[in-house]
Amino acid sequence: MIEINHVTKSFSTSKKAVDNLNLTIPAGKIFGFLGPNGAGKSTTIKMMTGILPIDEGSITINGFDITKHPIEAKKIFGYVPDSPDLFLRLKGIEYLNFIGDVYDVPSDVRQEKIAYLTKTFGIYDALNDTIQTYSHGMRQKIIVSGVLLHEPKVWILDEPLTGLDPKSSYSLKEMMREHAQKGYTVFFSTHVLEVVEQLCDEVAIINEGTLLFHGTLEEMRTKFTSDGSLEQMFLELTNHE
């Protein structure tokens, strides 16, 4: 479970990037985090993962405060950032072994997981190449493989499907479903509303740092009198002044 309590973040005195955000993301659910560009999604995720400090409020991951107990919290979650351009000078296998070392993944388990994940995502044959030679999609796949290597209970994914080919996208979505079915938490941001309709148990919509909606898709449809599409509801919410 992820609990975001009265969280505020400002980068200037004139505007708050995230304004008094309250959200509870339950275990056993796939939770979609939606909003236009610049809405505060990535800022929220960077506070959730300890990359950005929180100005006001608190965030806990399975009971661990990310500010007060950062090491304990970070052992629990896996994070896919919005850009996969990381550790470019390492070979793919070096990066995955580095992640395995950080999270103390035993050698035999590590080898099996690396083979499974990289074959699933179609990058097994590129593991001895440096990441800087990878395409954007391949870089996304190696980062996702690293995140899943240590089997974290909480997945925090910032636009995880960007750059993935249809087969890999399908595989990751199936993994997300399986993870939630085990009683664990999947939190992901996306611009692809079709994916939200396919996957999400609950959604939250944020715009200009303010939470506009939190609930199930059925609750969102109930809120609107028309039988509009998710796209129509999203546009109506985010265009509202």
Automatic annotation (TrEMBL):
Domain annotation ABC transporter: ranges: 2-233
Keyword annotations from UniProtKB, A to Z: ATP-binding, Nucleotide-binding, Transport
Molecular function terms, GO-annotated: ATP binding; ATP hydrolysis activity
Segments crossing the lipid bilayer: none
PROSITE patterns noted in UniProt: ABC_TRANSPORTER_1 (PS00211), ABC_TRANSPORTER_2 (PS50893)
InterPro entries (alphabetical): AAA+_ATPase (IPR003593), ABC_transporter-like_ATP-bd (IPR003439), ABC_transporter-like_CS (IPR017871), ABC_Transporter_VariousFunc (IPR051782), P-loop_NTPase (IPR027417)
Database matches in Pfam families: ABC_tran (PF00005)
SMART domains, per database record: AAA
UniProt superkingdom: Bacteria
Record bears the keyword Lyase: no
PANTHER family, alphabetized: ABC TRANSPORTER ATP-BINDING PROTEIN ALBC-RELATED
Listed name of the protein: ABC transporter
Species per Swiss-Prot/TrEMBL record: Pontibacillus litoralis JSM 072002
